[in-house]
Design a protein that fits this description.
CATH architecture: Orthogonal Bundle
Helix content: 40-55%
Number of helices: 4
Strand order of the largest sheet: 1-2
Largest sheet: 2 strands, antiparallel
Length: about 70
């Protein structure tokens, strides 16, 4: 299933990047560009990271909708 349609990034790719140490949406963006164009996938990325990929990580502000919003919330 695609998480980021802009760059064709799948859920499996996000999980792999998380397993390799990318535990924030910004780190996922650095690894594969997901979340850097329209931003509609950022909440999905947050959800994937919050579901055990990085268990010690807390989700940022739920009102954030783009990567830049997340960066401001950090």
């Amino acid at each position: 299933m695609f998480v980021c349609n802009c760059f064709g990034v799948t859920e499996a790719q996000v999980k792999k990047h998380a397993a390799d140490g990318a535990c924030t949406p910004r780190q996922i963006a650095s690894a594969c560009k997901a979340g850097t164009d329209c931003g509609s996938c950022v909440r999905r990325i947050q959800a994937l990271l919050g579901r055990g990929a990085c268990p010690s990580r807390e989700l940022p502000d739920q009102g954030a909708s783009t990567l830049s919003d997340l960066e401001e919330a950090a």
